[in-house]
């Protein structure tokens, strides 16, 4: 009897530990927090991103400059890959089988996911096919004023078929699975590249406790 009780208690403890670890399980909903903000250093300038909505595994983020001018809105599956949004030139949508992304989870080195779909830009009335391959390189830590954050480095290669011409882009994402937020991103295209990094995270209700940043406005490619 005692051995049976110990076995049951041990199993319950394992389940509780897994439930507390957002990395160790395939979550049924996002762990992102509405109102969380990130101060982003992008091309020598500072902008802000804020999580404005969480719907199941979908996370919506607003980007703005320090004057409050809207830069873009993006809706992301698990806060990792876009499914749609609004940019300065209009609304867009990625249509693909989002369950394919679950091949990365639970996140660990070597996990991969591949999928294809269509990208639609509504104002331009244009639709393109695209193919994606994602792979998890491993874990790292990113230092922030609020403390070090454990992130997973994820490589993303996307190829678009635009009017019969192939266009490829590569991204290196530093993804925080607890916040469901990308804390650093390196982007490469044939004739363009960009880099940005979160330099501060502001949790909901903590805005007054964050020291003012040096603010610089201007157009930033993100």
Percent of residues in helical segments? under 10%
Into which percentage range does the β-strand content fall? over 45%
Q: Kindly state the number of beta strands.
A: 12
Estimate the mean pLDDT confidence: 84
Instruction: Give the overall shape.
Output: globular
Over the alpha carbons, how many angstroms does the gyration radius reach? Answer: 19 Å
Helix/strand class: mainly beta
- Largest sheet entry: 12 strands, antiparallel, barrel
In what order do the strands lie side by side in the largest sheet?
Answer: 1-2-3-4-5-6-7-8-9-10-11-12
What's the SSE blueprint?
Elements: H1 2-20, E1 37-42, E2 45-55, E3 58-64, E4 70-77, E5 81-87, E6 90-96, E7 112-121, E8 126-142, E9 149-162, E10 165-176, E11 181-189, E12 193-202
Overview of this structure, please?
The protein is mainly beta and 222 residues long. It contains 1 helix and 12 strands. It has a 12-stranded antiparallel barrel. The protein is globular, with a radius of gyration of 19 Å. The N and C termini lie far apart (61 Å). The N terminus and C terminus are likely disordered.
Question: Can you give keywords for this protein?
Answer:
222 residues; mainly beta; twelve-stranded antiparallel barrel; 12 strands; 9% helix; globular; disordered N terminus
Summarize this entry quickly.
By secondary structure, this protein is mainly beta.
């Amino acid at each position: 009897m005692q051995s049976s009780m110990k076995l049951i208690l041990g199993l319950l403890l394992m389940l509780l530990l897994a439930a507390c670890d957002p990395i160790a399980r395939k979550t049924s909903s996002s762990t992102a927090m509405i109102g969380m903000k990130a101060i982003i250093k992008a091309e020598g300038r500072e902008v802000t991103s804020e999580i404005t909505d969480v719907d199941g595994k979908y996370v919506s983020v607003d980007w703005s400059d320090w004057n409050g001018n809207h830069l873009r809105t993006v809706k992301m599956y698990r806060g990792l890959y876009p499914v749609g949004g609004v940019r300065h030139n209009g609304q867009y949508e990625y249509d693909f089988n989002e369950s394919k992304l679950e091949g990365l989870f639970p996140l660990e080195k070597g996990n991969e996911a591949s999928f294809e779909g269509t990208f639609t830009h509504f104002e331009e009335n244009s639709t393109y096919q695209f193919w994606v391959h994602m792979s998890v390189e491993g874990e790292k830590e990113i230092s922030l004023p609020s403390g070090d954050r454990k992130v997973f480095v994820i490589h993303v290669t996307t190829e678009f078929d635009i009017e019969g011409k192939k266009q490829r882009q590569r991204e290196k994402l530093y993804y925080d699975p607890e916040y469901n937020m990308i804390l650093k991103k390196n982007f490469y295209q044939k004739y363009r590249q960009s880099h940005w990094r979160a330099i501060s995270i502001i949790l909901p209700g903590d805005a007054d406790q964050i020291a003012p940043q040096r603010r610089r406005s201007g157009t930033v490619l993100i």
